From TrEMBL:
Residue ranges constituting the Disease resistance R13L4/SHOC-2-like LRR domain according to the UniProt record: 163-271, 709-828
Record-given protein name: Leucine-rich repeat-containing N-terminal plant-type domain-containing protein
Keywords: Leucine-rich repeat, Membrane, Repeat, Signal, Transmembrane, Transmembrane helix
Domain Leucine-rich repeat-containing N-terminal plant-type: 31-68
SUPFAM superfamilies with a match to the protein in the record: L domain-like (SSF52058), RNI-like (SSF52047)
Main subcellular location of this protein, as a coarse class: membrane
First and last residue of the signal peptide: 1-23
Recorded topology in the membrane: Single-pass membrane protein
Gene3D superfamilies: Ribonuclease Inhibitor (3.80.10.10)
TM helices/strands, residue ranges: 878-898
InterPro entries, alphabetized: DNA_repair-toleration (IPR053211), Leu-rich_rpt (IPR001611), Leu-rich_rpt_typical-subtyp (IPR003591), LRR_dom_sf (IPR032675), LRR_N_plant-typ (IPR013210), LRR_R13L4/SHOC2-like (IPR055414)
One Pfam family recorded for the sequence: LRR_1
Amino acid sequence: MGGTRLSHLLSVMVVLHVVLTAALIDRDNLTDSSLLLRIKSDLVDPNGVLDYWSPSAHICSWYGLTCSDDKRHVVGLNLSGSGLSGLISRELWYLVSLQILDLSSNFLSGSIPPDLGMLQNLRTLLLYSNYLSGKIPEEIGLLKNLQILRIGNNMLSGEITPSIGNLTELRVLGLAYCQFNGSIPPSFGNLKYLTSLDLQQNYLNGLLPEAIQGCAKLENFAASNNRLEGAIPASIGNLRSLRIINLANNSLSGSIPVELSHLSNLKHLNLLGNRLSGEIPWEFNHLVELEMLDLSLNKISGTISLLNSQLKNLQTLVLSDNAFTGSIPSNFCLESSYLQQLFIARNHLSGKFPLEILNCTSLRQLDLSDNNFEGELPSCLEQLENLTDLLLNNNSFSGNLAPEIGNISKLQNLYLFDNMITGPIPFEIGKLQKLSSIYLYDNQMSGLIPRELTNCTSLTAIDFFGNHFTGDIPETIGKLKNLNVLQLRQNELSGPIPPSLGHCKSLQILALADNKLTGTLPPTFRFLSQLYKVTLYNNSFEGPLPETLFLLKKLKIINFSHNRFGGSISPLLGSNLLTALDLTNNSFSGAIPARLAMSKNLTRLRLGHNHLTGNIPYEFGQLMDLNFLDLSFNNLTGEVAHGLASCKKLQHLLLNNNQLSGTIPSWLGDLEELGELDFSSNNFHGNIPSEFGKCTKLLKLSLYSNNLSGKIPEEIGNLTSLNVLDLQRNNLSGFIPPTIQDCKKLFELRLSENFLTGAIPPEVGRLTELQVILDLSNNSLSGQIPSSLGNLLKLERLNLSFNHLHGQVPASLVKLTSLHRLNLSNNDLEGQLPSTFSRFPLSSFVGNDKLCGPPMLSCLDSQGQDRRKLSNTAVTCIIVAIVSTSTVICFVLIYIMIRMWCNWRRVHISSLESKGSDQHRVIEEDSWEAYDQGKRRNVDEYWKMNSTELFHAQDNKFAEHTAYPLPGWMQKA
């Protein structure tokens, strides 16, 4: 239906065109002149190229116009590259004699007028490189005589109109660099004279049409950077005139058609960046005219079977990023070869260095990186005398770097990193006068960095990271005036930084970290005006920084951490372009300069482990991009600067181990990106803000060793990403909130040394990711140990000591097979310990009198002792009872006898004698009473000492030897 409608439309327009042409056939020069002046009025002409379009001059002399031989008609309009803007005038169709219309390379906008379809004599239409938008008008198919149509590099969109297939005289079709979608119209197969088809850099999808074989004269076919899919049609092999095929960066799949080997005129074949698989057809060796073959970034496998005696014209072969295996074939390169570029990186090739490549004496660039080659590098590499780039990185080459490397006189780039090369750098390296970059990092090289290297005055990049080089940095390093990158990190270099380094005025990156360098920074550093990244960490540099460092205005990244620098940090703050500053572990002193806030792009600021004093600058609130702030282990005072509330991108805030005071600010809850918050070991007081519950990205919250009080907020359960919660050594009270169960990613929970009460919530057993420690010790927790703790299968340390827990140890705890430290001591636990707990020391359970079982006394022994204690008591009671009864009876009998005797003797005994007898009895009774009191006092003292003093003395000793060791950094503090 669409084709019928288009046919009707074309018929109507043809009739209309004939009528209008007849009406205008007698127009004179003045008519064309008036028309073009109206067209001119619609254009913006900032360069004045149309100033000479004037009625006072003959139209054929106007800029950009070509007239017919009789000078009556305009046959050509060429305003290419004139800087014009505005719309393409619809009135152009009145120029019925026009054969060439070239408005390319301007700033024209709007759509392509459908009226251009009236220009039946038009042979060339060039509208490329403008800002045209909209669709290609179907009326373009009316231009029956059109031979060249180039409208690419615009903002045109929509599907490509099939009416282009009606342009049967078309030779060149250029639709590249637009936003076309849909499929390639099969009607293109009608273009039997087409020699060049350029569709690259669009959004075309679908299959390559089989009908393309109808373009029998096609020489150049480019459809790269689209979304084409499916197999490459074998019918393309019928286009025997093809010289260039570029289908790169699509989603083509399947194998490479062997029929492509029939294209005997093919010079360039580019299929990179697709999903092609299978092997390279051996028949490709018949493409004797082939100059460039790029099959990289596919899934092609098998061995490399190319480059036999027939491919003499091949100059570029790119097979990188595939799955080729095996080694390089022995007939790979002939002495008469023109091969200049060979890229076979990122495959699975193996074996030793392919000596066959040494026959490719024309080679300029060789890339065998990221394969499995091994063995020593051949000394005869010097045979590749034309080599400019040698990339052998990411293999397993070993042995020493041969001195003959210095004979490849044209070498510019040498990439040997990530191998197993040993030995020193040969001093012959200094012969490579054109050497621009040398990358030897991640090897096992050793020895001195040769002074001769500084004779390579063309060097722009040196990277020796991760070797074993020793000795000094060559003092002649200043000869490398063009050096941009000096990367010597992670070696064993010693000595100072040579003052001549300051002469490397082009230096942008200086990385000397992880060495044994000493001394102070030379004053010549001030000449490194292009320096933007400098890393000196993990050395032994010392002394104050030169004040002249303030002159380095382009510094962006500074890392001087883990050295012995002292004094002020101000010399490093001359640049307002800083993005990262790390001075951790030095001896810098003084206040933190507020000037740091002038570096608006600062993202990382690390000043921890120094001797800085004063307050946190309020101006830090201007650092809107700051995501890492580490001021820990200093002597900072005052409160947390309220200005930090504006740093909404903060992810790490470390203020621990200072002398900061005040309350923890609630506005921290507004820092929604916060992932790590450490305020430990300060003097903060007050409550933990419930607003922390809004920091849902928080991974670590550490507030230990402060004076915080109040309850643990229930909102802590909102921190579902939390890994570490450390609130120990505060004055927190109340219950452990059950909402903590929602922190399901916790692997470390420390709440010890507080005043927490109540039972351990059984919900803690749902924290199944707990691994490092669960420490609830030194609180006032009561109740039983929840059996749910047996679900913490990953837990390695559990400390519930020094609480008031009672009841039995849950049998479910035997499931904690990862547990290697357990402390349940000093509670009121009772009953038999699980048998598997015998692997823990006695100190894990002392202070629980009613616990039994290994490693404590067996429960039978304990019961026996109890029985023995009961039997002795019974015996004692019986004896006491018998003695008491006998004594009473004796006393009664004696009393009766005495009364009888007294009655009998009453007459003979005086009252005085009776009185003396009573006194004697009182004295006697008093002595017994004193004895009883003394006995009781001794007994009380014995039990007091036994049950209290001795027992607690043992507890203290136990606590001293069984407490968990503090981390090293805390011991230092």
